Every structure is written in structure tokens, then in C-alpha cells.
Amino acid sequence: MDALELLIKHDIKPSVQRLAVMEYMLTHFTHPTVDEIYSSLSPAIPTLSKTTIYNTLSLFEEQGVVLYLGIDKKNARFDGNTSHHAHFRCKKCGKIIDIFNQKQEDIVIEGHPELIIDEVQTYYTGYCKACTN
Amino acid sequence: MDALELLIKHDIKPSVQRLAVMEYMLTHFTHPTVDEIYSSLSPAIPTLSKTTIYNTLSLFEEQGVVLYLGIDKKNARFDGNTSHHAHFRCKKCGKIIDIFNQKQEDIVIEGHPELIIDEVQTYYTGYCKACTN
DNA sequence: AACTAAATTGTAATTATTACAAATCTGTTT
DNA sequence: AAACAGATTTGTAATAATTACAATTTAGTT
């Protein structure tokens, strides 16, 4: 599925900027920050504003086409992969690794039938292989 | 276990400020922010500085006597309950609820024996009972 | 009492994010 | 093709959480 299709499917009107951000998210599953996205796209779209990146990602998140990650104290991070998976953050190098072998979480939390769950995020913290040696 | 014992057990030299913060965390399992802690303790300790709260919580977290929660976009939140449990945040009222009925997570992630896991945090997001009616 | 190291304080700096008004763009109607 | 309306983007300024840091205070030891 390409960027344009994805936007339309999620009721997002495409624009040059939105397509560029979506395209970036679909080719960089590195959980980028706003700054990283801005720095990467800015040369090709010289008029691009960082506010647009904030607006765009905020819209994308509302429409469920990207995931907001709160795993990093410093910056918001975003994930173009919205399928169910967890994340691991290395305390030393800061790298964030996808963890795919998760059982699908329950939609209802046992013992809390009164809560309506929209989203589940699991964050592991520790040391990656490169930082252990 | 009282505040003094806990600090000593975690190799933290007690001081008036540290004891006050620890005491607060042991009597307020509300996942407070730095500001909330500061505002609550400030009247009794008029010379208290907000920097001290930051320093103290940072030390407490390193020593494993409180948990840092990244569930709230705006502020850091802290939990004096370091036993294994998950958290739920209501999108509407912002309340954070403890979820205790979790199976103990594995120390090793299946498929990633190379990662050293120090911590696992699970954050649920959705709507609480009061905000659903 | 003097000394040393640690802890606390207060102010200033940093920085991510948001608010907002002006400018630009898109699509539609006349 | 011009005019218009609404949405989008932009740039700047404001906000606010956190950190840096130097000065002061405190606690413990000689």
C-alpha cells in the first residue's frame, strides 16, 4: 500500500507535505522524531515548516495511520507500522527496536470490564547487543 | 516498610527533603507529577526547591525505589509502587489507573535473547468508567 | 572549631511543543 | 478566467517542562 492510498483510506486529504511525511514513515521504520523527519524532508521541500510536521503527525495519529511512541523521555517518536508490536529502548545508545513476537493483547483487561481500551503500548528498557559487549 | 527504611535499603542517604518526598510517594499512589509533589510539600518545607524534587526523583528512580512513567505526554509521572503492574490512562479526564492483574512478564523476550531487559512498562489508553457515561 | 564532601537552592538556559495570525493553496461557483 | 470559501501551510512568538550550574547550606569527621 502506498502513501496516497493510505491517506485516502484514513480520510486524510493528501497534500504535498502530507504525502512526503507519509512516504517518509513508510520507508523509515526507525521511530523518527519530528526533527529527524523535518531535517530529512526540508531540502526537497524548502518551504516546509516544522509546525507542519507537528500538525501532520498529530492528524496522522488521530486517524490511526501512525503510532505515537512515548518510550523516549526527550522527544515524541512516531511509528509508521501500526500493527501490534512492542518496543525496546537501549538505555545506552538510545536505539529503539521493534518486538514482534507478542501475543495479541486482550481488548478487555481482566478485572476491569468498565474500561474502554483504545490502545496498548509495551515498552521494554535495557541494553542492546552492541551495548552489552 | 516506612520511608526511612526504604531509603536506607536502596542506599540513599536520608535527608529532610528525601524523606518528605519518599513519604509522599508512599502515601499518594496517584502517579504524581513533579509539580504536584512540590506544591504539596512546599508549605511544610518553605525552603524547598523544585530542582530538589527533580534531583530526588531522579536519584530514587536510579536506585529503583520509584518508577518513572512515560504514559503522560505533558509531564513525567512517578509511582511509589515498584511491584509489577500496568497502567491505564483515560484520554478524557487524564486519570491514571493501576492494573494489577498482569502475568509477570518474561525477563527474556522470546526471539531476542541478545537483549538485556531491565524494565517493562505496559500502558493502556482509552476511556474510564466516569468518562464513558 | 575547622574541614570536606554531599545536598540543596535559585536562577538562568535549553528545548520540545503549542498557539495563532497571516499567507498560500485547492476546488468550486459564477 | 475571476472570485470566493475553506482548508492547509507557514513563521513567529509564547508556553512550559526539564536541565545546567554556581553559590549556599548542611552533615559528618577530624
Structural summary, described in words:
2 copies of one chain form a homodimer. Chain A is built from 5 helices and 5 strands, in the order H-H-H-H-E-E-E-E-E-H. Chain A has 133 residues and is of the alpha+beta class. Chain A folds into 2 domains: 3-79, Arc Repressor Mutant, subunit A, CATH 1.10.10.10; 86-132, Dna Ligase, domain 1, CATH 3.30.1490. In chain A, the strands form 2 sheets. Chain A has a 3-stranded mixed sheet. Chain A has a two-stranded antiparallel sheet with strand order 1-2. In chain A, strand 1 (67-69) and strand 2 (77-79) form a beta hairpin. In chain A, helix 1 crosses helix 2 and helix 3 packs across helix 4. The longest helix of chain A is centred in the middle third of the chain and has 13 residues, at 50-62. The relative contact order of chain A is 0.14. The mean pLDDT of chain A is 94. Chains A and B meet through strand 5 of A and strand 5 of B. The structure holds a DNA duplex (30 and 30 nucleotides).
Walk me through the topology:
The structure is a homodimer of 133-residue chains.
Chain A: H1 3-9, H2 16-27, H3 34-41, H4 50-62, E1 67-69, E2 77-79, E3 86-90, E4 96-99, E5 116-127, H5 129-132
Parallel strand pairs in A: 3-5
Antiparallel strand pairs in A: 1-2, 3-4
Helix pairs in contact in A: 1-2, 3-4
The first copy, chain A, binds a DNA duplex (30 and 30 nucleotides) through helix 4.
